[in-house]
Specification:
mainly alpha, three-stranded antiparallel sheet, 3 helices, globular
């Protein structure tokens, strides 16, 4: 469900655009699809999969948050 939210939002700095506040798996998927750097590793793939699973109710939103954070660290994005 697109309204699922994390307990604590994540603010991510992307190159060339203002920092984005990511409130849950739906927001995370938008960032992964539209703003992510071209270097996409295994953490990116796992984050995308886990966020989709959280929206479907197969994973928790906090699991999706942890995977999104790991992908952001892998991509060397600034977390605020």
């Amino acid at each position: 469900m697109a309204t699922e939210r994390w307990n604590s939002p994540v603010t991510v700095g992307f190159e060339g655009v203002d920092a984005r506040t990511v409130n849950g798996p739906f927001d995370a998927l938008k960032c992964l699809a539209d703003l992510w750097p071209s270097s996409r590793g295994l953490r990116y793939i796992k984050a995308r999969s886990t966020c989709r699973a959280a929206l479907d109710g197969r994973k928790s939103v906090e699991e999706a948050r942890a995977e999104f954070l790991a992908a952001a660290e892998e991509a060397k994005l600034k977390l605020h």
